[in-house]
Write a structure and sequence with these properties.
This protein is α/β, with parallel strands linked by helices and 704 residues long. It contains 23 helices and 17 strands. 48% of the residues lie in helices and 12% in strands.
Length: 704
């Protein structure tokens, strides 16, 4: 990210520590503002004490700027700062107004052509701060920055007042949110999601549908309570528009359709029986796609629609096998995309499609209609993505980049991978002329909690807004303040601790904190293989996770002591849940190892026949199962984490799919409860007759 002093008369004040009359000069640099996204140009940071009168937001309340003013007022109040007529003035003014022209002239600033659509300027006044922009959108984004510049609460609150010119690097800054693999958000959460995305300068939200939109044409596929209705979609579109966010619906129109095709009503449309990919040659396929998108167009009025079309792995394995063998996979695939384009022409939408399959046939990409938009997706932290983008950009297609938050298949997102991926991919997209970014959230295992994703989501918004290559370190240092209003730095450090935990596992030759490790039985054959790698780093893994929990508790305690409110508390609860689940992975494998060692030693001592060793044997058996037994530790972990998980799920999602995940927690807790009961009987038998009788599952502990 780049911050540079403005070419204005205020630049002279930077070094001298001066500020406009009425403002208090500070030695703070622009980098120390910890605003996300970081403003493109910044200088002359000053502060003004707000006191008990707080802030007075001044704007034209009769037109389009009224919403930005109201939104700013509500945010300030939520931070514990008063909004009164006597407060420090924060003015939202249009650039063409005499007041704005006078302020810009006095400060030596001007708005560039690039700032017209979404850009803004912040100009300190004698007693406050002015936000100047040419459009309602620009004023809105300027007000979002001001939200982050209000610090503290009550009589100790203050307003940071930098001089800023700011505008986005990418015109399209979106988030794709997976609603088809378990989590389906409530309307309450979706509105919070929209507000938060807008605060970090996203302007597109793209819900991902496979079978979770309530189509009139395919009612069988939508489970009751598990699909967004048209009325809900209309409500969301209207709500998002206030926040300058466009909704782009994505309905998979080629692959990823198993949850439709598994029904007999639609199975005849599939490439394979009850598979996941539509058959391009079936006479009913294109009409069905057309019907879906016609229904979507009635409730999502924007100019774009996303047809998905990624990971069509079954193509050529069934009904189109002959065509693929004769023409090649790429041609059959791209020809069908062209037919989808023609089928959907009546909707008037520009179509986005995932670029993974087409990327493998660069010589054919140019055959696609030129009004389609290729969305190139890659999720690894590779150093360079230019080769991935070249096929589309060289063919003349508008191209967007799609990095990801790396939440899928993990108990908590791997933000090491996410930040590296987002940083490099968005950088290369900007450099090569991509027009947009569609950051992605995927819920492959069906149990993801969206509130765990905000770190990667916020970085995506920052990288798409900021020009050039954004800094992982600068973002991480700023996140706690920008997202949670935490001046202590402890929340940012908690995220760093969980990133360290992921890195520990990778260093040990494992993946990061995968869901698979959370559910894996350490006594199974696979569990024993994983254990050999995990146990040497289990203590380090757990210390990192527990450090995150401790830092979070300290940040909460500091806020309470200072009378401040930490913002986005739901994300903090999700952070703690993630840390505790990572900690539990280490605990579980340690517990299994403790059990195996205790059983081996108990057998050795019992074999001596030395009655003096009786209590020692009993203690070893109690280590396996008892009041402080390791079997019970694992049982308790699954049961108690299941409770925290349910709370987190219901904060974000509808009850739909929750029972599937609760069953996993309950099943795991029951397994370890039954094991504990068996081993408690071994201890009881030992006390009764000093006979060491192994339970049926004793063999599980062998060979560890």
């Amino acid at each position: 990210m780049r911050l540079r002093c403005l070419a204005s008369s205020l630049v002279l004040l930077c070094g001298a520590g001066l500020a406009p009359a009425g403002l208090v000069a500070q030695s703070m640099s622009c980098a120390d503002l910890h605003v996300v996204p970081a403003p493109r140009e910044c200088s002359a940071v000053a502060t003004v004490k707000l006191g008990t009168a707080g802030v007075s937001v001044i704007a034209d309340r009769s037109g389009e700027d009224a919403f930005a003013a109201k939104d700013l007022e509500e945010a300030v109040k939520a931070q514990g700062v008063a909004v009164t007529a006597q407060g420090v003035p924060v003015r939202l003014v249009r650039a063409e107004s005499p007041a704005a022209k006078a302020l810009l002239a006095k400060s030596g600033l001007k708005l560039e052509a690039a700032q017209h659509d979404e850009g803004y300027a912040l100009v300190p006044e004698a007693k406050g701060l002015a936000v100047i922009a040419e459009t309602p959108t620009g004023l809105f984004y300027g007000a979002q920055t001001v939200k982050q510049l209000v610090r503290g609460a009550g009589k100790d609150a203050e307003l940071l007042a930098p001089t800023v010119r700011d505008w986005p690097a990418l015109a399209h800054r979106g988030l794709s949110d997976d609603w088809s693999r378990g989590p389906l958000p409530t309307m309450e959460f979706l509105k919070r999601e929209i507000r938060t995305l807008a605060a970090f300068k996203y302007n597109i939200f793209s819900p991902y549908f496979e079978h979770t939109f309530a189509y009139a044409s395919t009612p069988v596929a939508a489970f009751p309570g598990g699909a967004m209705t048209p009325d809900e979609a209309k409500e969301l579109v209207a709500y998002a528009a206030q926040y300058h966010i466009l909704i782009i619906p994505e309905q998979e129109a080629f692959g990823h359709l198993h949850h439709v095709l598994k029904f007999e009503t639609y199975s005849h449309l599939g490439e394979t029986e009850h598979g996941a990919v539509l058959a391009p040659g079936d006479a009913g396929t294109l009409p069905q796609i057309g019907t879906w998108f016609k229904e979507l167009a009635q409730v999502f009025p924007g100019p774009y629609a996303h047809i998905g079309a990624d990971e069509t792995w079954e193509l050529g394995l069934g009904r189109t096998r002959g065509e693929v063998e004769q023409q090649g996979l790429g041609k059959v695939y791209l020809d069908f995309l062209g037919k989808i384009h023609d089928e959907l022409k009546p909707t008037g939408k520009r179509l986005l499609f995932w670029g993974d399959i087409a990327e493998n046939s660069p010589e054919l990409v140019g055959t696609l209609p030129k009004d389609m938009i290729a969305v190139s997706w890659h999720y690894d932290a590779a150093p360079d993505f230019t080769k991935n983008l070249e096929p589309f950009l060289k063919s003349g297609l508008e191209t967007w980049v799609a990095p990801g938050v790396n939440n899928w298949n993990r108990v908590y997102p791997d933000n090491n991978e996410a930040l590296g991926n987002i940083r490099a991919f968005v950088r290369d997209g900007q450099k090569m002329g991509a027009k947009g970014m569609l950051n992605t959230v995927w819920n492959d295992d069906g149990d993801a909690i969206f509130d765990e994703n905000w770190f990667g989501v916020a970085f995506g918004g920052a990288a798409a807004w900021q020009p050039g290559e954004s800094s992982d370190a600068a973002f991480t240092a700023s996140f706690g303040q920008a997202f949670h209003a935490d001046p202590t730095g402890k929340i940012s450090q908690a995220h760093e601790a969980l990133m360290a935990a992921h890195a520990v596992l990778r260093k040990a030759g494992l993946y990061d904190a995968q869901n698979a490790y959370f559910w894996l039985d350490p006594f199974s054959a696979e569990g024993k293989q994983i254990s050999a790698k995990l146990l040497p780093v289990a203590d380090e893994l757990r210390l990192d996770a527990e450090k995150a929990i401790t830092l979070l508790a300290e940040a909460r305690a500091a806020a309470k002591m200072d009378g401040r409110k930490l913002e986005n508390p739901e994300a903090l609860d999700a952070l703690e849940l993630g840390a505790r689940r990572i900690d539990f992975i280490g605990l579980k494998f340690q517990a299994a190892d403790d059990c195996a060692k205790a059983w081996a030693e108990a057998q050795r001592l019992a074999a001596t026949g030395d009655k003096k060793k009786s209590s020692e044997v009993a203690n070893l058996l109690a280590t396996i199962a008892g009041n402080n037994g390791r079997m019970q530790d694992v049982r308790d972990g699954y049961a108690l984490l299941g409770q925290l998980y349910k709370r987190a799920w219901l904060r974000d999602n509808r009850a739909y799919w929750l029972a599937v995940n609760e069953a996993r927690f309950a099943g795991a807790a029951q397994l370890w409860s039954a094991r504990g009961t068996q081993w408690e009987l071994v201890l009881e038998q030992w006390w009764q007759n000093h006979a060491l009788v192994a339970p049926p599952d004793a063999g599980l502990l062998a060979g560890r």
